[in-house]
């Protein structure tokens, strides 16, 4: 036992060298340590475990590739049971994650359907290209199963069911939708501040949109959230009241708050790094804006204003006076009434009677007759409610459509092709750079692309199918020209032995019984190590073999 101790120690040291060398490049003995690992190294171990899990998931992606290879080679699919369990676990985890995300993103799923309207034609061509690239697999499956593949047929006919507003004649394309600065230009400056609205005006917006709340002393001011916590420093000046409703602060308290430092701190749109030093200093000194200030700015620049009015809570002293408080500010300002778009549905008749020239707008999708009865000339809709057929119906009845929020060029292009008159955007500086729809094509052009891509795909798949069909028939015909003894003999022809000689004789007798009687016909086997035999030689050899046995 003592004899083997040095060998065991050597093996242990070699194992340690491999472990520490591969993991931490500590190949030398003096570099190793039995001390506790540092927190830094433990954190890297955690990241290593996370990476391992990701690689494990990634490895199951390669199982899909292996499955496709099985199909190509005509092998039976037989996934190992442990892999099946892991695949099911990954699937259930993914489904759980999607359900969990759905709780936070429920209102945004509509964007997926809308994006399909914009990308549908290109997704069809892309899917057709992928399936055509997999034509070898599909054709092989058709040859083996001897039935047609419905997948290609479905893809070829998909364009019959694709409908996109951007598939239209260019001559029918309406004018470019005007852009309304939603809360100003909140990607360039703090929302609902004079600086934000000034930035929006620099981007050539035609109107300014805001959310209005009534203060404790009846002053309408601009605030989107229920509280002041997100966009002001209320936690510093009024820490005990930071969770209170914004309407329970008087105007003096609201005016004392800073409304710009949060933008520099949080950088919500990753744009602070592009701001000049002058703009940063200006941002740091922004205050909460009142409705009167916004109206003065709009009047001075000849722009329209659209705003939504939030009613104060029941305990608020202006709970019943909120509409009249807003109307007083509008009437006292220098802005023209027709430049103000009134959205609240509360007391609409009284509002129309008090200020008849106000543009009546609504954010509720109502029948055209009811909109006319209420005197509503503009409908403000979320992009998920703006369907092309509804837009055409409202536009045909002289009801303008304003869609919000539209921040991406592709969505702006889709709304443009749908025929909307205006959009409310947080990114007017981006939409300013969209002079034309991202893409537009006529039905004839799309039909030509559809038919051409289908014909190319059909030609490729048929060519692959014919090749595989002929290849399969050639292989089958080759198999019929061999009997089992020939196949076995070809496998062991280079291993001369007594058994091989017996197989040679069986093969020769088999050929004779099948009608091969001449020496010339049997001479074909000489290439595989067989000599040319006559009938007498065969019988003599057979007898000698039996006697030896």
Notable characteristics:
eight-stranded parallel barrel; single chain; 549 residues; alpha/beta; glycoprotein; disordered N terminus; PLC-like_Pdiesterase_TIM-brl
Shape: flat
| CATH topology-level name of the domain at 178-432 | TIM Barrel
Largest sheet: number of strands, sense, barrel closure: 8 strands, parallel, barrel
CATH H-level homologous superfamily name of the domain at 178-432: Phosphatidylinositol (PI) phosphodiesterase
The number of E-state strands comes to 9
Give the SSE layout.
Layout lengths: L4 H20 L14 H35 L7 H25 L4 H24 L1 H11 L4 H8 L20 E5 L11 H9 L4 E8 L5 E3 L11 H4 L13 H5 L5 H6 L10 H7 L7 H11 L2 E6 L12 H11 L7 E3 L5 H7 L4 E4 L5 H6 L4 E5 L5 H9 L3 E5 L4 H10 L3 E4 L2 H4 L11 H38 L3 H9 L5 H16 L5 H4 L12 H14 L1
Parallel strand pairs: 1-2, 1-9, 2-4, 4-5, 5-6, 6-7, 7-8, 8-9
Antiparallel strand pairs: 2-3
Helix pairs in contact: 2-5, 4-19, 5-19, 7-12, 20-21
